[in-house]
Sequence to fold (1034 residues):
Amino acid sequence: MIYAGIDIGSSTAKAALIKKNRLLGTHVIPTGYNPLNAGITVFEAVLEKVGVSKIDITAIVSTGYGRASVNFADTAMTEIICHGTGAHFMNPDIRGIIDVGGQDSKAILLDKNGQVENFAMNDKCAAGTGRFIEVMANALEVELDQMGDFSLKADKPSKISSICTVFAESEVISMIAGLQKRENIIAGIHESAAARVAILAFKINIKEPVMMTGGVAKNKGMITALEKRLGFELIVGDFAQENGAIGAAVLASRL
Amino acid sequence: MKEIKIFHDATKDVSAFADKIKAKQKKIVGTLCSYAPEELIYAAGFHPMRLFSSKSDIILAEQHLQTYCCSLVRGVLEDSLSGRLDFLDGTVFPHTCDSIQRLSDIWRMKGRYEFFADVVLPVKLNTQSAKIYMVDVLTKFKKDLEIAAGREITDTDLRESIKKFNLIRKNLSKIYALQSQKPGIIKGADLYTIVKGSMVMDRDEVADLLPAIAANIEKMDTPEQNGKRIVVSGSICDSPDIYTAIEAAGGVIVGDDLCTGQRWFEGQILEDEEPLTAIATRYMDRIICPAKHSSATARGENMISLAKKNKADGVVFMLLKFCDPHAFDYPYLKEFLEKENIKTLLIEMDDQQQNLGQLSTRFETFIHYI
Amino acid sequence: MPDKLSDKRKIKCAKKMRDIMTTYYLDAMTAEQNNKQVAWITSGGPVEPLVAMDIIPVYPENHGAMIGASKMGEDLCTKAEDMGYSSDLCSYARTDISCSVVKGGPIGGLPKPDMLICCNNICGTVLKWYEVQARFYKVPLFILDTPICHTRYSPEIAKYVRAQIDEYIVFLEKITKRNFDYEKMAQVGKLAYKSQMLWQKVLNTTARNPSPMSAFDAFFFLALIVTLRGTQIAVDFYKDLLEEMEQRIKDGISMVPNEKYRLLWDNLPIWYRLKWLSNKFSDHNACLVADTYTSAWCSAIKYTDENNFLDSIAEAYTRIYLNIGVDQMADQVLEMIKFYDINGLVMHSNRSCKPYSFGQMDIMKIVREKTNIPVLMIEADMVDPRNFSQSQVETRIDAFMEIIKQRNS
Fold:
């Protein structure tokens, strides 16, 4: 019996298939403006990748901000439960999760059985989310996936004090005008975002080991900045971005 | 001026300065409001110290106060929780505003310092019953201080303390008056530092230094400059850079309506009255803070007279973001001033961030057109 | 989506309540023609002396709630911002201030006041707000200053507030040019006490499992205890409402069809999203059975002496829910969690209300330590919808409910 999880995030859509306790495969595409289409496309792509067809799938759980749009899913669950379940599935020792997504970042505390004990999410503003880093990358004219490498070359990270994305952007622009090194500005952006995310982890008294999930986990600059803030190392798995979809698939197997 | 340098040194590193006070076996009591009865704290043998935010990143305070709380309240809580205020032996909270009211609760529940007092003064300052209540509260506070100090505060102690603070206030008023008469005689950043220093430094030292500064600048000639005369209004304006930016834009600060300025030091305490009643009388008559009430137009009338007395060309409102009492008054104060043909500029500040580039542009534009 | 509230579940008293409120507002709107005076008063202020003097009390905060519920908040808030009021200020105040100028809102603005009565037991904002209105309408303002009782109700506070109750009466005598009727005051005091007791009993019925009504209904039925406290109308109405609730309990009629989870709400309602929130929780088989807000109008009743009303209201009005320390507020929340058998606490972090919202995180921590129930905080505003993000709130509520379900499975 094969189970599917589909995670429609604000910037990417992810799908995962599992069979018993084995991950069969995952797929990631950009979400675009139609979450249902993204769900259909990413689902079909993962089926093709793994080499199974729709009728082989016993149950589907959708998650992510577009979870309600996936009308072919059996049920929808939030990212919080899915990330918790996904992380526990990948590594049963995990007690804490930090997930930095496109429009939301969150810290999740798990009990020993992988059940969510507590969680904290960013407040209404986008500081400390993937979106924040994306806006800054645009302001700096740097490709998003280059941000991590740039920031690792910084010698003296700039200080960005504003927690509001709009104000922070104007701060960054004035830094560019002030001829500060791009590497330093980028490292400063990561430190600023990391500070916001770390606050969420502190709020729930996060316990180690902590897994980092979400698309931003691919950004080494952000990981470094976060580890510095938190004072401990983060575990980044190979499927950090797809973790929510994996959790959704696991939950589908429990329906 | 070497006296001013002492103020600069003291305010640059408040915690190092606090260590010096502690070395003299003095206990330090922090305050956050210009209605905190410093005279009583001093008379008890403690050192009253006004607390400012060190403007560090907010991390620990995030677990207690939401982002829509002002940067002063969040900043001071952050300083406390992260141990930067460990030199404190106690804290006193006059009620002030909704945010400080809750800060007081959180502070008390954390219980980091030995001494804690809520001195909930009346909000109304225009009735006899409010004055009686104020004297009652001050009397109770005096008792609390006596228990903490382990000794009685005598009338003589209080009278001496009042004299000391009157002397400080008188000299600060004099320095401000001189600056208004001879604009530019003292740099804005120096003026700021002197006032701030007077709130944190050893008051005996302050009382020695201020008359010398006043005497020195009295002798100076009026500097040649034709800056526009600016009055600043707001709660706190804890940044010398802002004063410098106003001057760089072609302005000169000739007076203020700040909690860390004239609102705090104007008005003498009657020395021949019963001390606690005399302290209360000054609070009742003093220039009012927007969190208090004496009449619906008291602040407006005061702003006009302040601006006129100082022949202000313009008034700059430096308002702390999320400071409700000031934000409520701003539209009417602006209207009152504009009726008198006094132009105004509104700057919304945040302790943690100051985009000086943008500020300078706004000051320059404002000063250019007034 | 079909309306889930079948006829059986509808509370019958709702219509009666609407009629009473309509009559009340009509009376207020036509006060001038009928030679009656109007006083604007804060929601936590002592209205009883006004009722005793036959002055019509009008509540800008109730008006603010109406503006919010009719989704007219954004427009009026923006108008206040155009007048120079910061968007960070209380949205009740912002809408009321701009409404006075533009005569907007669902009832075209409130009737012009002859006097303003401001009691600062709920916040410092009302002081500034009423100063604005005192300048705008050029009418006398009476301030009842009730110092916050961080840890206790001190003898100094007692003396000060008691003295002001007398000043309040002198103020009313001066404005009405009539003598204060102490006998009528005693009657009004008894009625006020009675209606508060009845309101508390109505709220207590939700301790039953399943609950005959929800906090969303309490938000609605609250209007009378605020506006008509001290009248026979309020007493009669709450008697009927209580009867209806008791009948519902007998008949096993619950507000949420399959009530499985019982939640407690903290802070003011999000007026423009009541229905959405109510459905959202109902879909999860959760009922908000109680809240800290509507119970604030009877939380200090233990200090009221119906036979010595004027003397006792100094204490009763000073020691209300918001005018005490955060630790005491947490104690009350813990009591409610126990009394109503609560599975989860939902806190509305309300940008408009600092004294209610600051300290919530400490209460949250205390609740987590002492009860082990999940606590959710959602950031919004009571009237200004620009501070509400539906998709964010939805995810948080769903995740919170998932945790509650896990824990109770």
Observations:
- The two ends of chain C are 28 Å apart (CA to CA).
- The longest strand of chain C covers residues 344-350.
- The mean pLDDT of chain C is 94.
